[in-house]
């Protein structure tokens, strides 16, 4: 394992080293998507330059090499999350597709009229709309765990929502709009005591802490490669084998079948039952490269470093007069969502951009979260492995300029 060296790490990310409007880029939008290290870019390029081939179907050399590489990538993901078996790892396009898969497949089999699904008040639209759709289709009801003024889930209220009609609970590991880390262990324990399976939306979670799905004992866990320094277009759905075996296919076609006649089709075994069509081989290999990259630096080292930068950012931003941080909780990681008194987030974001600082503004695909706090949007600074305390100073300086201009 290499010693954590931020300057060396920054060198690994080519996109960091550019100027925006003549200013050095300060990239604070990693919750939307992370920049990619050169090893990931190389892994994708190498695949297309060498073993480019379709998988699971060719007898020829390249196809076998591509199949091995694709299945090795699955195995690396399995080890990374400590899943029980690689057949519990389904490759998808991303978190959105993973949640749609669960909502529609699990929902088709297990959700019926008058049943209930529980989500929380601070979910990304991707963990609301698919459940809303399946509930509508089935005549079921979507229930919402409320949050307190700090954006923390109110567990007592969650317990009151549970009934013998509850079929699944689906919550974020870390909220993308507030950065709050939900008490997923407690939610899983309470749900399981009531015999209810739990899905964790890990799009932001798996980036900032070690995830061990067996220890967590969650039934499903989803994430997107592109938020974990891997390419866009590849994501993961982990599901316990017992559920995946019982769930019907989500999409149909090639790959996911065992035999097809005009009278009847039988389905392939896991994980292929849920991977209809040609999979995204290159980006699965890219995801493996990203995981290997992070592990070569050392996950614990990364989390410790990120915590330091995050703590520094929280402190320095709080000191700005007129600063309103949304989600004042001590259980946070990766994301700081805020507003400056009397300044529209979009105006602030536009000025920050001119100063080379990339943040996101708006509702962060979490309109109900904004509604909960009676606002339309926030400025969101989100952090990755490559951010530094010096960049926090640049952000603070840029925000003070914004205040000066609009003050
Ligand atoms: N859930 C959360 C918590 C997210 O942050 C995101 C991405 N912003 C998603 C789901 C959707 O991820 P994707 O767009 O990669 O499918």
Classify the helix fraction into a percent range: 40-55%
CATH class placement of the largest domain: Alpha Beta
Spatial separation of the terminal alpha carbons: 49 Å
How would a textbook summarize the main sheet?
Answer: 7 strands, mixed
Distinct compounds present: 4'-deoxy-4'-aminopyridoxal-5'-phosphate
Shape: globular
Structural class per helix/strand content? alpha/beta
Number of strands: 17
β-strand amount? 15-25%
How would you name the CATH homologous superfamily of the largest domain?
Type I PLP-dependent aspartate aminotransferase-like (Major domain)
Number of helices: 15
Low-confidence stretches: none
Please name the CATH topology of the largest domain: Aspartate Aminotransferase, domain 2
Kindly provide the radius of gyration, computed on alpha-carbon positions and rounded to a whole number of angstroms.
22 Å
How would you state the average pLDDT, rounded? 97
Order the strands across the largest sheet as they lie in space.
Answer: 4-10-9-8-7-5-6
Total separate domains: 2
Q: Architecture of the largest domain, according to CATH?
A: 3-Layer(aba) Sandwich
General description of the model:
The mean pLDDT is 97. With 407 residues, this protein is an alpha/beta fold. The protein starts with 5 loop residues before the first helix and ends with a helix. The chain folds into two domains: 6-37 and 298-401, Aspartate Aminotransferase, domain 1 (Alpha-Beta Complex), CATH 3.90.1150; 42-295, Type I PLP-dependent aspartate aminotransferase-like (Major domain) (Aspartate Aminotransferase, domain 2, 3-Layer(aba) Sandwich). Helix content is 41%, strand content 17%. The longest helix is centred in the N-terminal third of the chain and has 21 residues, at 61-81. Residues 94-96, 124, 126-127, 172, 176, 201, 203-204, 224, 365 line the site of 4'-deoxy-4'-aminopyridoxal-5'-phosphate (PMP).
